[in-house]
Here is the input.
Amino acid sequence: MLHSQCWAELYAGVLPPDVLAELSPAVMAQLWQRFVTRGEEYAQYVAEVDGDVVGFVGFGPGRDEGYAEVVEVYFCYVAPGFQRSGIGSELLAAETDATYLWISESNRAAHRFYRRNKFGPDSRRRIGSLFGTDLPEIRMSR
Ligand SMILES: CC(C)(COP(=O)(O)OP(=O)(O)OC[C@H]1O[C@@H](n2cnc3c(N)ncnc32)[C@H](O)[C@@H]1OP(=O)(O)O)[C@@H](O)C(=O)NCCC(=O)NCCS
Here is the structure.
């Protein structure tokens, strides 16, 4: 549920409405099922406040060629009402050896967040794809 809300918020204005409409909790549940059954080198953590999940992060082997030995941050989300109170940084700190991540070029808030956490743009760029829509991305590493 939280994942679909976060995506809907994050990609409103970036993804076409028909794609946004498909980001249902059921689709997210399928994605999560795939993540959690991938093996022990993959790690997901959630942040809870009063028993509710308000944030989550996913790590695993680097997916870029030659990066399988280092840890990539796959995603990190904090629910809108709980952002900017340190939860994202705490989630990110769950894997101290996390080395790099890809992030949408337009997501300035997240760039700032990762900079705060010692990641910096490393000059690699790519055109990512989310549900068939092209999204320019930058890589940040530390
Ligand atoms: C990016 C995100 C994970 C950060 O988590 P968080 O709990 O809000 O971050 P923290 O409280 O640990 O760190 C806050 C710092 O991050 C940066 N930051 C976070 N949100 C920001 C925003 N909306 N605008 C500007 N800077 C922001 C700032 O440097 C901020 O420090 P400040 O409040 O002193 O200026 C969270 O805001 C989020 O889920 N955003 C939407 C989804 C997203 O973009 N995820 C990343 C893609 S995988």
Q: What stands out?
A: The CA atoms of residues 36 and 42 lie 8 Å apart. The helical segments are 2-11, 17-20, 25-36, 87-92, 108-116. The longest helix spans residues 25-36.
